[in-house]
Each structure stands twice: as C-alpha cells, then as structure tokens.
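Pair request: fold both.
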Amino acid sequence: MSTITNEFGSPPARLLLAPMEGVLEAVMREMITEIGGYERCVTEFIRVSSTVLPSRVFYRLCPELKNEGRTASGIPVYVQLLGSDPALLAENAKVAVKLGTPGIDLNFGCPAKTVNKSRGGATLLKTPDQIGLICRNVRDAVPVNIPVTAKIRLGYDTDECFDAIYQAAISSGIDELTIHARTKVQGYRPPAHWYRLAKVCQSSSIPIIANGELWSPGDIAQCRDASGCNAFMLARGALCRPDLGRSVKAEFEGRHVKPMEWPEILELIIRFMDANGDRYDKRYAVNPVKQWLVYLKHYYPQAAQLFAQVKRISDPDELRLHLVARGLPLAA
C-alpha cells in the first residue's frame, strides 16, 4: 500500500491533545475532539504522593472513564500520573486500568515549583535512572495491551543530560515518548529546540512525539523538518485555535477546511461557561473562561475585546448573560 504524501512532504501527522491544568480538561477535551483531528488525549496529572488513591480521584480528573476511557466522540483519554515513588505509581496505574483507562501517561515535564518541590514532574529530569525505574515499574504492573507513555523535557537546568534522560525512558519498555523541546528552566519561553529531537527519532525503537511552540500547521511542518517527528502534542495552540487539529490534519492530507469563525467560537465559550457552573464553586467558575479568552485572543481579536469587557465580572450568571447579550454582536 502506498503512503499518502502531499506538499508538506510527509505522511499525515499524528496529533495528540495535551492537558493544561484548569482549562484543557474534560469539557475542553470533549469540545476539541468533537471538532476533530486528534487521535488521543491525556488528562491533567493525578498526583501520587503517599497512598493508592480512591476511585473518585480518577473519575474527577478523567470522567471519560465512565465512557470506556473515551470522549463523547470516541477519542481515547490516557490517565496521567505524577510522582516519584515507582511502586506507588505502579499501584495507582493498576487502579486506573481497572477503572477502564485505555493507557497510562507519566509526567516528567511539569515545571511548576509546587510540583517540583515534592519531587514530581520536571525535577526528576535530574535523576534519569529514577525516570527509567518509574517507567519500568509501571510498564510491568499493567497488562501488555495497555500502552504506557511518558513525557519529558530536554533537561532541568541544561540539556547536558538529555541523552541519559531519553535513553532511560525508552529502555524501560514504554510504548511512546513525548518530548517538550525545552528544559525546565526555559519553561515555556520561545523558541522550542525541535532539532534536539532528531537524534532521538533516528535511533529510537518507539514513536517520539514532539511538543512545544506548535501554534499552526506551518509550525508543525517546521518541527517535522527539524526533528524528524510525525507525531505532535498540541497544548496552548489548541486553546488559541480550537480547530487547529482539524486544520493540521487537512493540510497534511492535502485538503483545505474553512477555519472556525467567531460565532462558532462564542458558542463553545458559552458551553464551557455552562459546564464550569456545574463543576466549580460559584466563586471560581468564571476563571477558566477568562483564562481561555486570554489564549483565544491570539487568534481571534474578538476575544480580546470580550475579555476587556468581562475581566472584572466574578459572578457566573452575570458572565453568561454578557456572553449571550454582548458577545454575539462582536462577530458582526
């Protein structure tokens, strides 16, 4: 069978939807995967520190477990675990599998200070052997038909230990590895150093997924050329442009799809607002909506106008009325 190619010069890209605490969560996953383009999602991290967690914790961060671990549109959602104790992470992975997750993802990339102080996330980049041990324990603990994946960065302070980090993860027996092409210290500041992934892609026995500074189909094409990857994890770019996944898939398949227009985006914002009203205390329900508007304004100027109008609103009912009554005319 021939491989599909196009003006981008490669087979169609594989796209994964990343988690982002507080905004790229279950409701957002459902909306974005409905639009299309993604083959997999990952939950916000479940922090594992001292115990095997009860089922309610997994259901809270991954309500898709009640739907065979898939979004309403059928896209699988892997449960992501964060911690430093190999045996405890393995036991919690067993719980997630029992509850129905289609895969386990391990977080070694989160740069948050509170997480790193408790020996979670990116701080483990300082100890590649521990990363390998965690991956191996989790891989051995769950059935072979359940994929185990991990996410790393290039390093903590520098990328001098990058080879040791990715080799430890790959040699553990995991199924795929996502690499955020920056160190912990570099955080989210551009640029992402996609070229550092090229050696990994050439030598790896498992798929390598690129992450970082992927805002458009053009960015993904450049990342592919620099890294050799054909799988990409999208995060902030997907929040700025909810149809980014669909657009990327179309570009890589030689098709054109019309970008979503502001009235369609506003409908999603109202839907997100309504869902947050059920999920959050009334005092906090407006915060994720405002956070999303900050991302959306990078692609939709109407979002910047709307944010300026609602940034001081703290009551969710008032915000919803504003979205419906004043948001719609902005599209004119």
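--- second member of the pair ---
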Amino acid sequence: MSKPSLPQGTRDFGPEVVRKRNYIISTIKAVFELYGFEPLETPAMENLDTLMGKYGEEGDKLIFKILNNGLSDPKNIEKATRAFEHILQGKNDKDLTERALKYDLTIPFARYVAMNYGQLTFPFKRYQVQPVWRADRPQKGRYREFYQCDADVVGSNSLLNEVELANIYTTAFKKLGIEVEIKINNRKILAALAEQCGGADKMTDITIAIDKLDKIGMEKVEAELAERGLDAEQIRTIRAYLEISGSNETKLAAVKMLFVNSTIGVKGIEELEFILQYQQSLDVDHLLSIDLTLARGLNYYTGTIFEVKAKNVQMGSIGGGGRYDDLTGLFGVPDVPGVGISFGVDRIYDVLEELKLFPKEVQKGARVLFFNLGQAESRKAFELMQQLRGNGIACELYHEQAKFDKQFKYAERKGIAFAVMVGSRELETGTCNVKNLTTGAQQSVRFDQLGDLKFEMFVV
C-alpha cells in the first residue's frame, strides 16, 4: 500500500493552524459586518461557460476543469475520446467537461446577482469567505486551493464605495497588527495609455505584460510587448509611463501632462484624486500609494484598482480588487456597476506567522481538565464539568482512569491551564482540588462553589 499523500498545492490544517485561520477570518468578517456587508456563499463548482473568458488569457489557463460524470459508459468514453482530442488542440468540449472549480469569488458573485437581480435590494453589499482553486505552480504564498475573503458592492456608481473599501483594508489590517501599503491605480489611465499605443485593442496586451513587471523586470516586459505586436515607439511610450515616480501628487501631475487630451485618462485621474482627498480628511492617506505600474491583469476591471502589500516581509500581495462596472452584463443583466476587494487569507496567515503577530489567546482551547480517578469519582467530575460548561468554561474529562503523571502530561501537551481532581476523599467532603498548572498553586473548593471560580483569574 502506497504512503498517503496530498495533491500538490493543497494542505491539511491541524487544530493550531485552524484556530489561527479562524482568528484571521473572524477579524475580517467583523470588519465587513461593521461596514454593513451581508454574507453569501456559492457552490464550489460552476458551469464552465460561467468562468471561461472572464479572467483573461492567463487566468483561463489556470481554471481547474472537472470531467463529466458517467464516463464509464462505453458510448460516453467514445465521446470523451473525441473531446479529448479537441482539448489537446486548445478547445473546450462539453462531451468531456462542462463544469469547473471556481477560480475566484467575483465571477460567481456576478452570476448570483444576475440570477437574483429582481429580489435584491441595491446597492447590494455582500461579503464571502470560501475556498477557490487555481491550477497554478505551487510556491511560497501560492497554493492551488486557498481561501478568499471578498467584499463587493453592486448597483452603485458612487466613488464613496472605493473610499469605504480602502477603509475596510485599513481597519482590518490594523486589527490584525499588519503594517501595509495600499496601492491604487485606475484602469481608465491604462486605457488612455493603450490609446496612445495604437488603440483600445492594445489594452489587454499591455496590461498582461506590465502586470508582470515586479516578477520579470522592465527588459522582459518590453520583450513581451514586442512579441505581442507593439512597435518600438509604442514600447518607449509605455516605458516612459512606467518610469513615472515620486509622491502621489507628483505622479498625478505627470499623468495629467501625459494624458491631457484623453477624456478617459482625465476621468481616471479625477477618480484617484477623489479617493485621496477623502482619505486625507480621515488622516489615513499615508497608507494609500498611487502605483502606475499596477494593472491587475483581469479583463473585467474598469476603474480604480487596489493591491495590498505587507511591509517588513517578503510576500506577494495580500489583498486586491477594483471596479468592474458591467460584470453582470456577461450574464445578460447589463449596466450594473460594481466594485470589490479581496483578502488573501493564506498569505495573511504566512505574514502573521513570520512576524509573530498571532495573539497568544488564539490557541485558547479547553481551559480545565478533570482528572479521572475512578468510576464514582469520574461520574461526579462529569457532573461538575457540565456545570462549568454551562458557565462558558471549556473543559474536558480525561477519557480513562490513569496515573496522575499521565494525566498531567496530557494537560501539558494540550496547553490546558487548570486541573480539577475529585478523589474518594473529596467525594466524602464535597470538595475538589483545583490546581493552576502554570503557577503550581492549588486550593480546595466546595462542589457548590466551583462554578463561581474565575479560572482565567485564579491565582493563589
């Protein structure tokens, strides 16, 4: 029998890790609720045509497709064989696969809004915390199965939504103790760049290439742009744009000069200025940084885009998002504006772990261990344990009668802070011995007073 293993890019999560992940998720959820967002869940799989063509050329390659069920039927096998030949030619075929694991939470959300448009109250503000899957190459901070925490607003053109989402990032990461830089740009500015480089049809080629700038550097970006058909003059224009640097004000002034005759470029600049001016009144503008190289290589973004990087740690983005003014139009419901952000739970976990920012109380499990010292004694211990549980104190009874040393070691391994011992003598006197396993202090407590004991504060 082969040794058990996991699919590459996936992980098991033990109790310690799950508690830490729950801390991250519950912190972010609390901020979402604070800002008036409502919870939503969608299925793990979607119809393939729901997902394909929504993430750009690079994203579509990373969609996990699911084989159709019923392939054991010989007739289906023949169809699947022919379909597989189409797949090898880079085509999709419903005889082989009709469904796929969801790549992100945004497209399924857009599908949900389109299907339930008549029943929703707009603007509709939802948050969603679920796993997604990507057929990516696993590496540090990048997995094939991972969780996303999204917050989106649909049905509103107001830039106040962008301001609120930026504040959600600020609030959540402050609560988590992570120092971050929130980078922003606007796809309308990138559209203006595409105009200067031959037209709107160049937009996808340009954004896909410059989205890789941090990973591959300027020279390779220029080489990719050339491969995508841009000429030397167009590439020089893009390079000049990407080399704009300085403060937010300096960058805005430079792009104003560059796109002074572009209606869409001026509009994008005005949107960035609105967000920055709002943030200045809240004294958090220092967290927002205009990054003109930020492209967010997904085709559906149309306005302001976000990316969050953690300071003091080598890690990719831990959050991102942007405006997508006609995403539901992909599903037959046009003209529904939207904007959203996402938190990368797995990368946030890695950052908190590396910087040692998890609070100690995150690992709070059972607080009290009742020793098992015999049949009659354990029955009484079980009765007392239920009283403590009724008071909200987490506790457990050792599963069998055993030597003191074995039960003490069990408590130590599980990080249990207190031991309660009820022996034959204690049954006669109606008392129990309570020991603080951290300090070694011990006291005798009457059965009817045990429920009043504040174990979190018990020090003798």
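Observation on the second member. The chain has two domains: 15-212+243-354, 365-457.
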